Amino acid sequence: MPDGIKVPMPTLERLATYFSVLTDLKVRNIETISSADIETRTGVNAAQFRKDLSYFGEFGRPGIGYNVIELCSRISRILKLEKTQPVVIVGAGNLGSALAGYQPLRAENFRIVAVFDSNPRKIGAQLWSLTIKDVANIVEENKTLKAKIGIVAVPASVAQEVADRLVKAKVSTILNFAPTMLRLPEGVTVRNVDFVQELAVLSFHLPENG
Amino acid sequence: MPDGIKVPMPTLERLATYFSVLTDLKVRNIETISSADIETRTGVNAAQFRKDLSYFGEFGRPGIGYNVIELCSRISRILKLEKTQPVVIVGAGNLGSALAGYQPLRAENFRIVAVFDSNPRKIGAQLWSLTIKDVANIVEENKTLKAKIGIVAVPASVAQEVADRLVKAKVSTILNFAPTMLRLPEGVTVRNVDFVQELAVLSFHLPENG
Q1: Given pLDDT bands bounded at 50, 70 and 90, which one contains residue B158?
Q2: Does residue A204 form part of some domain?
Q3: Which residues of B touch A189 (CB under 8 A)?
Q4: Helices first, then strands: H and E counts in chain B
Q5: Residue B17: closest C-alpha in chain A
Q6: Which residue of B has its CA nearest to A147?
Q7: How many CA atoms lie within 13 Å of B99's alpha carbon, on the beta-carbon side?
Q8: Which domain range does residue A30 map to?
Q9: Taking 70 as the threshold, does the pLDDT of residue B35 lie above it?
Q10: What value does the mean pLDDT of chain A take?
Q11: Residue where a domain stops, chosen among B78, B106, B139
């Protein structure tokens, strides 16, 4: 992929979707896929799929389709998913604990290397194979861990403070589960996962007289 | 809101974001907000915000801004969030358990009324204030529960089977956490939350030599 290419966010999100579907196909030993199959499996139409890939050069063969393993590995390179990425989680509550043990993350080259919390009753406790660490030490700890991806799994009221700490610890991308918008310095990328927002969108689609 | 109005999905998603931010402001007793404030807090530009609202009639006053409580309640009406929505979860693993106990859902009129699983060692066990039920009985159980929203929190390998059961149980909207695309009959709305996909998008933004 050419250096410094600017990829629009919707394209990037679709690439991540393709990657997810291709990984699933790979596991099930399916060798070839057409752009029509992609449409069925992702809801993204075939023309859009081809356009998304065109940012990154030539893919597939007309009338034959795409080799699943090859396409998966090329998208994986584009998304920089080839080497294992250390990830830190802040918040050892229900959600943080669930994420720390979430199998598909481990399978996909994301490795949870530490879970932090501020609760003295949690610090030092075991969570899966990890020992919960004090968030007060995160800047120091991350000098060794070198995680660039941080997950915020704390209540909204303390999420900004946690995000500030992550930035100080040189984390440059944040997955935020707290239902609040984080203010972050330029150069730090954030993605918000807001369960309430997702349910609100579904709620709109409920039948009127259900 | 006029009947049968067709709202584009991106508009709907932004409405849900505004709702989330406004709820936060309401809790903090902030009375008025300008579209510029909305821009700062959501990243959605002020013109887009005004355009999104224009689907649903007149809002706000020029030079004064929007009354937070009023705007929040109108968006809540648009998204049909006014009455409590019963929600069922399938999957009493780490993620399902975390979602069942997730405070912000309770605060926002979504009530988890049941958690189902297929594991005999889990069925009958207590989870928060609920007793885990057998997913084999979901069609029968939902005749009483009347949930229209279902959450799929099971591994990808069994997600389709679970979704089919939910549809049989007359659930019409699904929040899917399994990293797989569900095939659903027309009229059933699905939203996918894919943690791997989210991290993959962040991964793309990592500095080259971090």
Answers
A1: very high
A2: no
A3: 202, 205
A4: 9, 10
A5: A197
A6: B210
A7: 32
A8: 9-78
A9: yes
A10: 89
A11: B78
* CATH number, domain containing residue B23: 1.10.10.10
Which of B52, B78, B104 represents a domain boundary (last residue)? B78
Residues 173-192 of chain A whose Cβ lies under 8 A from any Cβ of chain B: 173-175, 179-181, 189, 191
Do residues B145 and B190 share a domain? yes
Look at the alpha carbons of A52, B188, B114, B12 in this order and tell me if their dihedral is positive or negative. positive
Residue B2 has pLDDT above 70, yes or no: no
User: Is the ipTM, as predicted for this complex, more than 0.95?
Assistant: no
Q: Are residues B112 and B190 in the same domain?
A: yes
Q: How distant is the Cα of B144 from the closest Cα of chain A, in angstroms?
A: 13
User: What's the pTM value of the predicted model, to 2 decimals?
Assistant: 0.86
Q: How far is A93 from chain B (nearest CA, A)?
A: 8
Would you call B201 and A16 a contact, using CB atoms and an 8 Å cutoff? Answer: yes
The pLDDT tens digits for A148-167 are: 999 999 988 899 999 999 99
Q: Is A3 exposed, middle or buried (0-12, 13-18, 19+ CB in 10 A)?
A: exposed
Q: Residue A1: pLDDT band by 50, 70, 90 thresholds?
A: very low
Nearest C-alpha in A relative to B42: A181
Report chain B residues whose CB lies below 8 A from the CB of A52. Answer: none
Closest approach of chain A CAs to the CA of B188, in angstroms? 9
Cβ within 8 Å, pair A199-B105: yes
Residues A114 and A168 placed together within one structural domain of the fold? yes
pLDDT, one tens digit per residue, over A26-48 is 877 889 998 888 887 787 888 89
Mean pLDDT confidence for A85-89: 95
Position A10 pLDDT exceeds 70 = yes
